[in-house]
Amino acid sequence: MAAVSLIESVMKFAIAVFSAAHAPSSRRALLFAQAALAGGHEIVRLFFYQDGVYNASGSVVTPQDELDLPKQWRTFVSEQKLDGVVCIAAALRRGVLNEEEAKRYQRDAVAVGAPWELSGLGQLHDAVQDADRLICFGGA
Amino acid sequence: MSTLHVLSHSPFGDERLSSCLRVIGTHDALLLSGDAAYALQPGTAPFTALNARRLKLYVLAEDAQARAIDVPDWAEAIDYPAFVELSINHDKVNSWL
Amino acid sequence: MAKSLLIISRQAPWSGPGAREALDIVLAGGAFDLPIGLLFLDDGVFQLATKQDAKALQQKDLSANLQALPMFGVEELFVCAESAAQRGLDLGALSLEEARALAAAEITALIDRYDQVITL
Question: Which residue of A has its CA nearest to B3?
Fold first, then answer.
């Protein structure tokens, strides 16, 4: 009997996160992203805006018995080689600076490193144009 | 055309659920996530409102479970793979941030 | 053909950076010549109240950015009639004259028309 293969189309997702790492919606975003990849789909970009920029902060210290979401995001983006973009304007306002910006504005703390990239809202629009689906997580 | 609306705030003292129900279309679906799962708390106005609408209604299973909310038979508890499928089966996702 | 994006702005003007950051998404899209629409809903309609005084709160005036929208090619501007009525706003006297008042059913159709939507 011939094998029947159901080829489900691969969907391209743009996932935008608007809430900080301690918000339940950030964890939901990560679980959704993991499920999307596990389902054979692609993630064209993860874009962090508003309080979402805090997910990229390397300065967040999570108690040992709690979920370390910034670390989980970092691991996920690195291992899956995803494009993790943090909105630079939102990040500056919230003190989430990379080395370049810390130098530019003469700030002591560098909070963002690889794999995160600080960039503009153009990257969000780019992702929206490229993706089949845009999913936003935030609020609570 | 159909939209998957996603709510994540408690309906008590928050306008998102009522505004969503004002604009949700007949082919749309609604996913309750996070504290929005409280809309399925029996004996409440949101519960009554949702029961009265013929909506394709979903709730994230983990959120109903965490809050000890029994999912009525007119709603469907889903996991993340099903959430991904839902987002594909509708034309777009509108999360009420 | 470019995908169209509808931004639904629900935050009051002085409730934090929300209203401004929603507008920034719209302006960025306009700057890239993308088809962007903007709907003011719920407390978002307060952004269109006249005679506001940002200086009283040491804030930047949003209305300058709002008036700039058509210059950025963003002309699809809408306001929820019911949200405005609930908040005692006169639809005939909003700070953004170009904003079209919509009833609930028209908002349903509006969301349907766009390829993507962000409600913040």
Answer: A133
Cβ B23–C115 below 8 Å, yes or no? no
Across-strand partners of C119? B96, C8
Which residues, 6 or more positions from A70, have their beta carbon under 8 angstroms from its beta carbon? A21, A54, A55, A56, A57, A58, A60, A62
Sheet of B3-7: strand order equals B76-78, B56-60, B29-32, B3-7, B92-95
Question: How near does any CA of chain B get to the CA of C104, in Å?
Answer: 5
**pTM of the full predicted structure?**
0.95
Residues of C near A (Cβ–Cβ under 8 Å) read 2-3, 5, 17-18, 21, 24-25, 28-29, 32, 34, 116-120
Structural domain containing residue C91: 7-50+58-119
Here the CATH number for the domain that contains residue C95 is 3.40.1260.10
Residues of A in contact with C7 (CB under 8 A): none
In this predicted model, what pLDDT tens digit does every residue of C30-79 receive, in sequence order?
A: 999 999 999 999 999 999 999 999 999 999 889 889 999 999 999 999 99
Rounded CA-CA distance B24/B36 in Å is 16
CATH code at position B37: 3.40.1260.10
Q: ipTM value, please give it.
A: 0.97
Contact B93 A135 (CB under 8 A): yes
Give Cα C51 distance to the centre of its chain: 17
What mean pLDDT is reported for chain B?
A: 97
Other beta carbons less than 10 A from residue B57's beta carbon:
19
